[in-house]
Amino acid sequence: MIYSVHGKLIFTEASLAVVECGGIGYACRTTSTTLAAIGSVGSEVQLFTHLSVREDAIELFGFADRDELACFQLLITVSGIGPKAALSILSDLTPNRFALLVASGDSSALTKVKGIGKKSAERIVVDLKDKLAKSNPTLKEIPAAAAPTGADTFSEALAALLVLGYQQEEVAPVLLGLDENASAEELIRLTLKEMGRRSDR
């Protein structure tokens, strides 16, 4: 198993990054998110990898961080979701947003990804909801309303509040009552204000 490749980025194109390590160029299929993160040709990069071995092909998939790799590996366990579809999903959604959509059961948002139909989206949610909740306790019991367009900022605010010592059941209802288009900083500020008001009662 190849855990990662670390070397010079020598070539990129849509869904592909080639990293030279010890004189060998490793062609890694990847997402647009990773391509944007690793910089330009000539830079030094590290990609966390997944080696796929099939009867008709051996392919290496590379990702800029472990979270994206973990989501990819979960996605390809779903019946009918191959590596190409998994890359497409993770090119449109960050691992954090993807996890929130699945945890909240929002399959309709997944159908906006090119090549993902209603049945595939529903299968992804059904197959991965429990797995994601087990791997990330902060995603357990996220209400369905928590996965609109502002899911990323909601998650950032929730994570920060949990670090500050609040319980999810305390702050999630407050967050859900706020403007979903607000920044994470604004959501945190308003939630802290409301929590402070409640503690003074």
Q: Helical region count? A: 9
Could you say which structural class the secondary elements and strand pairing correspond to? alpha+beta
Average the pLDDT over all residues and give the rounded result. 85
Shape: globular
State the strand order across the main sheet.
1-2-3-5-4
Distance between the termini: 58 Å
- What is the strand content? 15-25%
Count the E strands. 5
CATH topology of the largest domain: DNA polymerase, domain 1
Supply the CATH architecture of the largest domain. Answer: Orthogonal Bundle
Oligomer: single chain
The H-level CATH homologous superfamily of the largest domain, spelled out, is: 5' to 3' exonuclease, C-terminal subdomain
Write down the secondary-structure element order. Answer: EEEHEEHHHHHHHH
Unreliable runs = 137-150
Task: Explain what you see.
With 201 residues, the protein is α+β, with helices and mostly antiparallel strands. Helices cover 48% and strands 19% of the residues. 32% of the residues are buried. Helix 7 crosses helix 9. A five-stranded mixed barrel has the order 1-2-3-5-4.
The gist of it:
This protein has 201 residues and is an alpha+beta fold. Helices cover 48% and strands 19% of the residues.
Q: What is the topology?
A:
Layout: E1 4-13, E2 16-21, E3 24-29, H1 32-38, E4 44-53, E5 58-63, H2 66-75, H3 83-92, H4 95-103, H5 107-110, H6 118-135, H7 151-163, H8 168-176, H9 184-199
Helix pairs in contact: 2-3, 4-6, 7-8, 7-9
